[in-house]
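Supplementary Data S3. Sequence and structure tokens for construct A.
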Amino acid sequence: MLQGKTLRVARPTDRLNEVVRFYTDGLGLQIIDHFENHEGFDGVMVGMAGGPYHFEFTHHRGHSVGRAPTPDHLIVFYLPNRQEWQQIVDHMKACGYEPVASYNPYWDRCGVTFEDPDGYRVVLQNAAWEL
């Protein structure tokens, strides 16, 4: 029933501008929408225009949400093309984002993990998604 539908992953942040910069400048996603002071919330949606997923980052004015609960809260991008994968890893480093050791060593075998400003981890996995 959900096949072909758009997925939105929404999460709050205390560092809205820094988080958006990580996902846009670093990972190359685009700002596809935003809002300000909607009932006390500011938000930015990032993804690829017309893509099947996007991320919504929100900040509730006057409230604090803190950092990621654990270092194993992950978003994984599967990038099977070695050259494309290396370009993205190099670009992240050039933007000032340094890789971190993955909490689960599995992700370090074929991937590189980066931590966003809230402590959530993004794995760039040099592999195809295969079930």
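Construct B, processed identically:
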Amino acid sequence: MLKIRIKSFSELTTNELYTILQLRSEVFVVEQNCVYQDIDAKDQKALHVIGLKNNKIIAYTRVFKPGDYFSEASIGRVVVKQSERKYNYGHQIVEASINIINTNFNETTIKISAQTYLKKFYESHGFQKIGEEYLEDNIPHIAMKKK
């Protein structure tokens, strides 16, 4: 079971921010072989959902209130360290993120931009595909919404 912490950007320690950016780079840039601008000036608006195992950050998302990313509340940068994926921490961090949006923003409608191959994963959390597939940073994505 993951221990979940929620922090605003200003509450993150330097070491936490470094570890989060390192994890995002490890997965989205190196593992997925995708050169893109991860540091996008949106982290300052987000709530950071940190998943800890043995006091180490192994899972992460960032969540936004309506209007800060999409017109709806949203979840992004969903990431789990590769060596930890077999323990279903992805499901735990997404469920925690949904609950945080419900509780902190009093919102139930959530929009995401999901990598297409994760469609079934997000459907298991109540998201439904909206629109057509598109390329984002040269990776196939789909918009999905949970109401």
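The mean pLDDT is 96. The radius of gyration is 14 Å.
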